[in-house]
Structure formats: C-alpha cells, structure tokens
Amino acid sequence: MEAIERLRRSRSSFVFGMKPSTECFSMANGGIGGFAALLCDWLSELFGIRFTPVICEWDELSRGLASHSIDFTGDLSPFPERLKTFVMTSPIAVRSIKYMRLEGSKSLLEIEENIDAIDAELQAAQSLPLDREKHGEISRITELVLMADFKQAAALAGNLCGKAPEDMR
C-alpha cells in the first residue's frame, strides 16, 4: 500500500499502450474500446491513478516502453530477453486462436501441402477471359498481400476504396 501511495503522489496517470486489435480499437465517438479500455478502467478504480489506453503500432510501443512514455502494455510475451529489461506479470488474459472453415473445404494443412498446385490454378484462372456481359466488372482477386501493421493495411484499403487511411480505423 505504501508503494501505491508513493505512486499516487508522484504520478497522476499511466499510459497503457496496445497495438490495434479486437482488444484495443478506436470507436466511432473517438474513444477506445475493447478489453484494454475495460482493464484500464478497472486498474484506475483499483489504484486511484488514471490508466489511459493508447493505440500504437509495434515500433511506437517499443520506443515508448524504452523511453518510458508508455508505462504498461498487454502486448509483450515474457521471453527471457524481455525479462532482463521489463518487470512482467503472468498473462492478464488468454488469447485463443480459432480457425474456422466451411464444411468440406480444404484444411490449412492441405492448402499448405498443395500450395504449388493451388498457385498454378490461380495463375490459370487469372489468364481466362472474363465474360463481362455475364459478370459485369467483376475482377479476380488472386494475390495474397501481407501487411506489416494496421497503418499499412489501412493505407492500402483506403487506396482501394478511395478513402484516407485515418478514415479506415
């Protein structure tokens, strides 16, 4: 309790940095939603010090933690090299990964095992003429594009639909 009292006297708030995700996202009203926002509200009430969620990309999060402009995050796994630098708790939440597919469709393992054949199929389909009278202006999407972060994906999506990246959040 003494440590918390010292913190209350020396700090009026803490910054809780998170990458954009379902756990931390911008809402239409400009606020931040998701688990991170709820956790910050709970921590603020528990300790009597405001915890403010902030959305940032990985590089911003790393720099912020190093410079102490970001105090906490829920985005770091406790790898041995990080334990040398950061004070880390046990996980604050369990992140489940769910994989769903249509019944009868190929599994990820089947796709991976047959990627060369699938690529050849896509290349062949791409070279077929498109019946524009029957299908209108439908185009085939045959390219997988990997993005480094949310900003890059938002910029590409914005370019494709004619919106500025900030409108894509």
Characterization of the model:
This protein is mainly α and 169 residues long. It is built from 8 helices and 5 strands. The chain is elongated. Helix content is 43%, strand content 11%. The protein has helices at residues 2-10, 35-47, 58-67, 80-85, 108-113, 115-127, 132-135, 150-161, and strands at 13-18, 25-26, 32-33, 50-55, 72-73. A hairpin with a 5-residue loop joins strand 2 (25-26) and strand 3. The strands form 2 sheets. A 3-stranded parallel sheet has the order 4-1-5. A two-stranded antiparallel ribbon has the order 2-3. The two termini are 40 Å apart. The mean pLDDT is 80. The protein has 2 domains: 2-85, D-Maltodextrin-Binding Protein, domain 2 (3-Layer(aba) Sandwich), CATH 3.40.190; 99-128 and 139-161, no CATH class.
In sequence order, what are the helices and strands, one letter per element? HEEEHEHEHHHHH
Structural class: mainly alpha
Question: Mean pLDDT, as a whole number?
Answer: 80
State the helix count. Answer: 8
**Relevant CATH superfamily of the largest domain:** Periplasmic binding protein-like II
β content, as a range? 5-15%
Query: How many domains is the backbone divided into?
Result: 2
What is the CATH class of the largest domain?
Answer: Alpha Beta
Low-confidence stretches: none
Strand order of the largest sheet: 4-1-5
Radius of gyration: 23 Å
